[in-house]
Amino acid sequence: MIDNHHYSVYHRGTDRPIMIHGTAAECARAMGVLVASFRSFWCRQRRGRPNACRKWEIIREED
What is the tens place of the pLDDT at every residue in 9-29? Predict the structure, then answer.
């Protein structure tokens, strides 16, 4: 799966940036998770699932 999107990830408790404008792979590396886990977190968060990701806030950047 090719993903040309960029994301920003913030620590939910402190709003501290973890990765700004990175690829899914770069964000996953910065978070210490697999790319598949990153995509799962983002999908659950995007769909508004409660407790989708308690630790991070993931935002997909618009081009």
Answer: 999 889 899 999 999 999 999
Please answer whether residues 12 and 56 qualify as being in contact, where contact means their C-beta atoms are separated by less than 8 angstroms. Answer: yes
What is the pTM assigned to this prediction? 0.85
Separation of CA 6 from chain center: 9
Q: How far is the CA of 3 from the CAs of 6, 11, 14, in angstroms?
A: 8, 23, 28
Q: What is the rounded distance in angstroms from the CA atom of residue 1 to the CA atom of residue 21?
A: 19
